[in-house]
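pasting for ref
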Amino acid sequence: MDALNDPEDNARPLPPALVLDTNAVLDAWVFHDPCMAAVLQSLSRGDTRMMASPSMRDELAHTLKRASLQRWSPDETSVLAQFDARATLCPEPAQPAVPGLWCTDNDDQVFLDLALAQRARWLLTKDRALLRLARKARVWGVAIVQPGQWP
């Protein structure tokens, strides 16, 4: 039997998913924060999958143009190419993915909703508004953690 028709091959579970907020993406591909090294290695090996939505990519592209980032001279084309190579683009999540689980920063709600909708195991962020929801999100199977706390 060839590999294309091997039923056991089709039964392999997908690697666990994670969602990176915009600042985690910047930490990885602009600031080269060592806290993101394990995440990037895991993505490169295929041990995890990065989930994102079109609005997240748009926010990243917009953020890369901000004057506050220019002292790091981000290579927008390179950062977006790395994002595109690693991210699985998903439809925009329904609002809210879980009733009653609201982020006080409305701009960050999409990260939480996508993580919940895609059943991501982790949402990596340093954002306080998202981190405050860690206990509630864990009930739904999502661990909201800072990049340095990621397993």
